Amino acid sequence: MVFLQRLCFQEYCLASPDLLLWAIPLAAALAILLFFDFVHFRTQEEKKAFKRQRRLDKIVFFILRSLVFTIILVALATPYRVRETTTQGNPSLTIVADNSSSMELFEGGIAERLKEQLEPFFPVTLKYIAQGQRSAIGDGILQNIKGDDNVLLVSDGNANEGRDLGDIMLFSSILNTTISTVKMEPLHKDAGIAIEGPTEVIVKSESFYTVKVHNIGELPYSMEVFVDGDLVNLGNDGKFVWRFSEGFHKIHARIKPGSEDYFPQNNEYFMTVKSIPRPAILYVGKPESPLGKALERIYAVTFSENLPPGFDAYHLVVLNNINADSLNPADVDRLSTFVSEKGKGLFVVGGDNSFDKGNYKSSYLESILPVQVGVGQRTNISEVNVIIVIDISDSTGWSLDGAATRLELQKAIALDAMDQINLDNNLGVIAFHTQSVLIAPLNKYTFHDPAQLRTKISSLTPGSGTNIFSGLFRAEQEFRRSRGSKNIILISDGQDTWESGILKKGQELANQGVRIYTVGSAGENTNKALMQKLADMSGGFYYEPQTVNKLKLLFGESPEERCEKETMELFILDDSHWITKGIEDFKAKLTGYNFIVPKASGRKLVATDCDRPMLVAGRYGLGRVITLGTDDGSKWAGQLLGSRNSKVLTKAVNWAIGDFMKDADLDIRVRDTSLGKPTAINIISEEQPQVKGLDFAKVDVGKWSSSFSANETGFFKVLDAYVAVNNDDEYSYVGLNPQLKDLVAISGGRVFDKDDIEGIKNGIISLSRRVKAETKQYRMPLLAIAAIIFLFDILFRKIREHMRL
Fold first, then answer.
1. What are the CA-CA distances from residue 667 to residues 199, 660, 681 (Å)?
2. Whether 474 contacts 506, CB under 8 Å
3. Does 359 lie in the same domain as 418?
């Protein structure tokens, strides 16, 4: 049941208005008590005379006692009034100026000029933060805030080290420090290049890479990409596919912009790729299996119809359609040790002789799997609470395709999500920018006016900065008096600078049993990392806009009718997991499946349209286990092995294997770095490595470590490996950080025009006014009134008794 959280009339509120509902049963109980006389009469005439005599007494008693009970209930409901008081304060300003190299793109001397022009109006202090290649902006701000003061940040907002800017902004708001900034337009143009893609791949497998160019000022440029010196034929989207031979390889991208390019330091990008041997897989089952043949094209597969005595040399064991009775306890013990202690992988495939059809229920083998045999029971849909939280920050007003804005897409997603929620569920809607707005309180779906609610959502307009925390906090308040499952559908671009606070609130919600399902709305500009973390930590899923229809599996109608079909469609239910991330255009059907249910340790990644789990991943000790709730493609799931869909199974195998080189006698592991930042070089070897200029220390049996740094960019060879060194991180992010305006909004600051001195002056004076909210409760006065009425009731009855004497 959902109760009111708060009831307000003008500036007076009740914190717990649901307590007023007790007035009805109390009044009814009082009326019933007054109906009885509790006196024995000798005659009916005597009884009638007594009732006539006591009628006025009972009426007055009922009114006064009901009034007393009501006032006490109002007092218990905690009446209060919030009054805001404003103090003028003493206007002053601290200008904090970023002096790092990336600021060279902008006009110089802005901070000095602002200090000179603002000093006639109030005290101004100028402090410089960041220097050269170090942009510890957060640390610099922290050193210059005092509390109850104003700070003007002159910076591009691009920090490459130090404390998180979002955390600093939140801390400043706690200290009542307001941090503002100024708009700056780059005076110079700049173009830079970077590469995105895997740094470790399987030999001869397809590896996908994307070359990205940031261009400030729309500079003309030409671009070249080389792999081991060979020129790559790039597509128009900057993507390319490559098959690497075994060993280390070099990718070199360079851009040749026009003569107006300001920073030549970011015109080249270096990247190394390690191509490793094909992992060894033991495939237990029939060798003519379609799945086995597909795996054989990528991995070194050994087929066996029975589990051999020894299999420690393999990276992964696949059990294809194996009956649990065919594995004795010793076999399962060896599998358990193989996975949990040696950190290897296990892939169990279903079929007509597996899981529910293969005596897995309560078997020893079932104990090491992330699933158990059975049919999951859906939660009572009458106790499902869903709150849709919509981002209406100013960034949602930006165009996606030249016509529609992000907010228009988000409103469409919200309306689509509403259509997929069962009418028996409880529904609420919240919007947020820097603050949250309650669009519809959490209540039974049918209690809402659908047309009115759709109109409210459709009429939402962009607000100021972004504060996802406020939306989650408001949802938490709405859930406080609800029962059953609690679910949040967060629709946002994820562009919020206070990630640590958001994730902390997400963890708090997860601890309360709230699941967060996130929907990204800005395409490539969505902060997917944040949105996925929020979903992962709470047991929810991350969705792209085109996959929101999967919500129907979670909150829609009962799936029993859909399960009766002969052919079922497969859906990627959780596309935030490493296995399913980036899988596009997945579309497969199957005609049969096994009955499995994920355990608490299992994560359901792929399911049928009737919510039957198909692909479930889980960890077991040091290793990983995958279960597939259908067959190997021979009878039921042939489409799953098609070229469009088989990538899911390949990634599942790779995830289960984990570290491909864990058994290597000699291996070199090193990450690419940038100038001024050392990187660790870890080597697996029985003997101490000897490399000129590097000293290796023994960190474990057969494991050695050293630190490498370089004074110039390019590729450097360490034994048989290469390490790439790029230019300073300072040049990776240039131009004005688009999130800066949202950052300052957290502290209550503003974005000023650098040339509007009058506006800055008035703004600082206005921001110097401090508003304090004071809450005054009225419990005691109400209890005093109730006591007076009670005493008056006693006095009235005493007078009436005296008059009857």
1. 15, 11, 11
2. no
3. no
Q: Report d(CA 596, CA 281) in Å as an integer.
A: 25
Strand order, beta sheet including 12-14: 7-9, 12-14, 79-87, 770-777
Angle between helices 499-511 and 528-538 (to 10 degrees): 20
Crossing angle of helices 165-174 and 499-511, rounded to 10°: 80
Residue (of 720, 717, 714, 724) closest to 246 by Cα position: 720
DSSP string, 631-686: -SSSSS-GGGGSTTTHHHHHHHHHHHH--TTTT-SSEEEE--EETT--EEEEEE-S
Residue 565 lies in a domain: no
∠87-91-92 over CA atoms, to 5°? 140
How many domains, the chain? 6
Distances (CA, A) of 113 to 97, 124, 611, 756: 12, 12, 64, 12
Let me know if residue 475 belongs to a domain. yes
Q: Do the bridges between strand 613-620 and strand 623-628 make them parallel or antiparallel, or are there none, so unpaired?
A: antiparallel
Instruction: Using the 3D structure, point to which of 251, 276, 301 is the last residue of a domain.
Output: 276
Q: What is the CATH number of the domain that holds 420?
A: 3.40.50.410
492-507: burial string, b at 16+ Cβ within 10 Å, e else = bbbbbbbbebbeebbe
Q: Tokens 């400043």: give the residue.
A: 172
- Whether residue 560 is predicted with pLDDT greater than 60 in this model: the reply is no
Percent of the chain at pLDDT > 70 equals 91
Burial of 120 (0-12, 13-18, 19+ CB in 10 A): exposed
What residues make up the domain containing 452?
381-543
Extract the tokens encoding 211: 């070359």
Residue 207 pairs in a beta bridge with: 242
Q: How does pLDDT run across 381-403, given as a tens digit for each residue?
A: 447 889 999 998 876 766 555 45
Q: What is the pTM assigned to this prediction?
A: 0.59
pLDDT per residue as tens digits for the range 597-613: 999 889 999 988 777 89
Cα-Cα end-to-end distance for the chain: 53
d(CA 103, CA 275): 39
pLDDT digits (tens, 9 = 90+) for 420-473: 788 778 889 999 887 888 888 888 887 888 888 888 888 888 877 778 888 999
Q: Is 320 helix (H, G, I), strand (E, B) or coil?
A: strand
- b/e per residue, 216-252, with b = 16+ CB within 10 A? bbebeeebebebeeeebebeeebebebebeeebbbbb
- In 3-state terms, what secondary structure has residue 194? strand
Report which of 429, 454, 416, 442 is spatially closest to residue 556, judged by C-alpha positions. Answer: 416
